[in-house]
Specification:
- There is one protein chain.
- By secondary structure, the chain is an alpha+beta fold.
- Helices cover 41% and strands 11% of the residues.
- The chain contains 16 helices and 10 strands.
- It has helices spanning 12-18, 28-31, 51-66, 93-101, 117-124, 133-174, 182-197, 216-221, 225-232, 235-238, 252-262, 278-287, 304-317, 363-373, 377-389, 422-426; strands at residues 77-82, 87-90, 107-108, 248-250, 265-268, 321-324, 332-335, 346-353, 393-400, 430-436.
- The strands form 2 sheets. Strands 3-4-2-1-5 form a 5-stranded mixed β-sheet, covered by helices on one side.
- Mean pLDDT is 82; it is low at 1-7 and 196-237.
């Protein structure tokens, strides 16, 4: 006969009554109102039952024709190429905030994602009050951890109580166990299990936050705001200036997209501080996608940068916010609006596809293609299992690889092999999507 245990987990009201109120979150809808660092000027909507809307549309259209507003910033944003890190550095704070707030480009060199080192340092030194986004995330994770520990404790107590009741009923029916000793036996058994899991069960031996003394950082957080404000108001702290040691790092795909597709960024040579032409930047990104970097004469149509940028450009043009996916073992992560609004919905794996006749023309090319496309089902199952655990949908992005362009052919490259017409060169690539979901028996019975 099965036994059903009912436990009462701590409710949200109980949690809210024991913790301090959360600070108000920033208005992300206003902060990230522009999806890209360019401005759009759409025509007003047409209202059929309102004839003045047609007049309004005509006036706006004529004003745009006579004096067209600029969609790009007056001064181009600036970044520098770093050959050591194979990335692009944005050192200006205003430019870094612009690229992050308008499209979520790059990451802070001293932060997990958003460049917030300066803000964290000011809070750490007591110059300003409040918490950074990373601190808020850490506190919420700690709250969830404490909630789960409390729920497990209540479930364990309910089970021990139920076992004690069963022992009491069993003693009444058989007469072998004294009813007054049944709870003591259950408590002793529970104590033995706890001692077996935690040999040092004294409060002094427990780590901070698990029954012993609370961590020192939590004690600092519990200080009343008035006491902190009195320290902040001191002249010594008010006059202290912290130099920002963090810069924004852009990947090669992000930098080239901002330069070529949007035209809002220029990349400068760190040695001469001169802008790098787009065609030269294209060759630099392709060369440094290998390690060690390859010369321009050895570049092939399936360069790692080409495959990654084609997929990056494809999903960015569809409106997705594309972020690196190395944390989950994939190439890209796709966000609907951005990391501050919700988690990524899709994880993208890039797979080259050699369906053209050129790649099967010789035995050497066939062997090369087989080596690059050889993936096992075990590899695919592992990647898909990881994405299922983090509640993401795996997308296989197949990139059709064209045949190489011979020097000067079709006006795409010059005699030296450098690409001169990047638009025509990229149009030769095609992207196919395949969504792969993990099938489980208990969830997919139909």
């Amino acid at each position: 006969m099965g036994v059903h245990f009912e436990t009462q987990a701590p409710t949200t009201q109980d949690k809210d009554s024991t913790r301090a109120p959360r600070p108000p979150r920033p208005n992300y809808n206003k902060l990230h109102a522009q999806p890209l660092p360019v401005k759009a000027y759409p025509l007003p909507p047409l209202i059929p039952h309102n004839p003045f809307s047609i007049l309004h549309i005509a006036i706006v259209y004529l004003s745009h024709v006579i004096s067209s507003p600029s969609s790009h910033p007056q001064d181009l944003l600036c970044a520098y190429f770093s050959a050591d890190t194979r990335s692009f550095h944005v050192t200006d704070e205003i430019t870094a905030r612009t690229l992050w707030e308008q499209g979520f480009f790059g990451k802070g060199s001293l932060s997990r994602s958003e460049p917030a080192w300066l803000e964290r340092e000011r809070i750490r030194q007591g110059l300003v009050l409040g918490d950074t986004s990373e601190e808020i995330t850490r506190k919420r994770r700690e709250e969830r951890k404490q909630f789960k520990n409390e729920r497990a404790r209540l479930e364990r107590e309910a089970i021990e109580t139920k076992l004690a009741e069963e022992a009491t009923n069993h003693s009444h029916s058989n007469g072998h166990i004294d009813p007054s000793q049944a709870p003591d036996l259950a408590q002793a058994r529970s104590a033995e299990e706890i001692d077996g899991q935690n040999p040092t069960s004294s409060p002094a031996a427990l780590p901070p936050g698990r029954g012993g003394s609370p961590p020192e950082k939590e004690e600092l957080i519990a200080i009343p705001p008035s006491a902190v404000a009195s320290d902040v108001s001191s002249p010594h702290l008010a006059q202290k200036v912290i130099i920002n040691q963090e810069h924004l790092q852009l990947t090669a795909e992000e930098a080239f997209f901002l330069v070529y597709a949007l035209g809002v960024l220029e990349i400068r040579d760190p040695a001469t501080a001169q802008p790098i032409p787009t065609s030269r930047l294209f060759s630099i990104c392709r060369s440094h996608s290998y390690f060690p970097p390859q010369p321009s004469s050895n570049l092939v149509p399936d360069d790692p940068f080409l495959l990654s940028y084609v997929v990056y450009h494809y999903f960015r043009s569809l409106g997705w916010v594309v972020r690196p996916g190395i944390k989950f073992g994939v190439d890209h992560l796709l966000y609907n609006r951005g990391p501050v609004f919700a988690h990524a919905e899709f994880a993208v794996i890039i797979l080259p596809s050699y369906t053209g006749g050129y790649w099967s023309s010789t035995a050497e090319l066939q062997a090369k293609v087989k080596k690059k496309t050889n993936k096992s089902w075990w590899w695919l199952h592992c990647v898909n299992r990881v994405q299922a655990q983090v509640k993401k949908t795996l997308v296989l992005a197949y990139v059709e690889i064209p045949s190489p362009v011979i020097g000067g052919e079709e006006g795409i490259t010059n005699e030296a092999g450098e690409v001169t017409d990047i638009g025509r060169f990229l149009k030769r690539y095609r992207v196919r999507e395949l969504i792969l979901k993990r099938w489980t028996l208990n969830r997919n019975k139909e």
